[in-house]
Design goal:
161 residues, Rossmann fold, alpha/beta, five-stranded parallel β-sheet, single chain, 19% strand
Length: 161
């Protein structure tokens, strides 16, 4: 059974994330969404909130499991027995950032290759950082995140839009 890990902070989950999850889940028997717990950052949503949102968003998608992890991605891939790591690429800057990481992860765990999935053009400008920036200035995030995520954030932060 072929298994892939799609790691990320998912803070918050975007439409781009969901597109990659749907596409990657069709390529593997099992897709593990690895929610990175990074104690050095101040996330918009807690790890439990991010996991719950992803579970709700993927509940009707077979073969998907949502888990949290901290530490090295290569270790998480080993622990899950995954065969591949999925990373989304929006532009050349993403590729330049992701390629050395993929090579280092392969050096640490040669049992899993990294597969880069190109973002669809309509999602190439979407990032969690952009969503957080929009929120900071009271911008409308509805075109950037799934409805489930919008409703959660609107309730959590008392958005009036």
């Amino acid at each position: 059974m072929a298994t892939a890990v799609f790691p990320g902070s998912f803070d918050p989950v975007t439409l781009g994330h969901m597109d990659l999850i749907k596409r990657a889940s069709g390529m593997f028997d099992k897709l593990i969404i690895g929610v990175l717990i990074n104690s050095s950052k101040s996330p918009l949503c807690t790890d439990i909130e991010r996991i719950r949102m992803l579970q709700e968003l993927t509940q009707n998608m077979p073969g998907i499991e949502v888990m949290s992890f901290d530490g090295l991605l290569a270790d998480f891939v080993s622990q899950t027995g995954a065969d591949a790591v999925i990373r989304g690429i929006r532009n050349s800057a993403d590729f330049e950032y992701e390629l050395p990481l993929a090579q280092a992860n392969y050096k640490l765990n040669c049992k899993a290759d990294t597969l880069f999935l190109a973002a669809l053009p309509e999602h190439s400008y979407i990032s969690s950082s952009a969503v957080k920036e929009l929120l900071r200035y009271n911008g409308d995030i509805r075109g950037f995140v799934p409805d489930t995520v919008y409703r959660f954030i609107a309730q959590k932060f008392n958005l009036t839009r």
